[in-house]
Amino acid sequence: LVFFHDHVLMIMLMITTPVSYMMITLIRNKQTSRFMLEGQMIETTWTIAPAIILVFIAMPSLRLLYLMEEVHNPTLTLKAVGHQWYWSYEYSDFTKLEFDSYMIPQEEQQESTFRLLDTDNRIVLPMNSPIRLIVTAADVLHSWTIPSLGVKTDATPGRLNQTSFSISRPGILYGQCSEICGANHSFMPITIES
């Protein structure tokens, strides 16, 4: 994901530099050229060039989507159920291992916790292991999102969505419900301890 981000950023830089130069030149120019009435060649060029650029962005993007969707033997399966306004988790590989995860109220927070991001029960997941995540909702639409992992999966009532990820370094990862599922959707934090 980081390499794809850098790849697209370089393409954007190569586009914005000449476009900025042309815009500044057009602003400073007096617009008195009699040869600017027709430009079949330039119109053809600026129609075909964006199509070629989109191919250079689409190929790595499609490859990345394919690689992210593959689930080879997952070490652990985690099931997340979105409720209003908390998450329920279940480690499917173990019997009777389920818990609810609520946001820590402001009056109970310590100085070491992040406001609106820390939960009373953290998800504990292994590092450098493929993890399968199954997401659903009990009431309305939710979205299980951890930006630092590049994971965002919608939780829809009556439907199981599946994704996979692997955590490459130890630490505490934070996320929130990123679906506008009601008044308190931003108070549904997700905390993973790796």
Describe the protein's architecture and organization.
Belongs to the cytochrome c oxidase subunit 2 family. It catalyses: 4 Fe(II)-[cytochrome c] + O2 + 8 H(+)(in) = 4 Fe(III)-[cytochrome c] + 2 H2O + 4 H(+)(out). One of its GO terms (molecular function) is oxidoreductase activity. Residues 73-194 form the Cytochrome oxidase subunit II copper A binding domain. By secondary structure, the protein is of the alpha+beta class. It folds into two domains: 1-29 and 38-69, no CATH class; 76-193, Cupredoxins -  blue copper proteins (Immunoglobulin-like, Sandwich), CATH 2.60.40.420. Helix content is 29%, strand content 27%. A five-stranded mixed sheet has the order 3-2-1-5-8, with no helix packed on it. A five-stranded mixed sheet has the order 4-10-9-6-7, with no helix packed on it. Helix 1 (2-28) packs antiparallel against helix 2. The longest helix is centred in the N-terminal third of the chain and has 30 residues, at 40-69.
Short description:
The protein has 194 residues and is of the alpha+beta class. It contains two helices and ten strands.
Give me some keywords for this one.
five-stranded mixed sheet; 10 strands; single chain; alpha+beta; 2 helices; 27% strand; 2 domains; Immunoglobulin-like; 194 residues
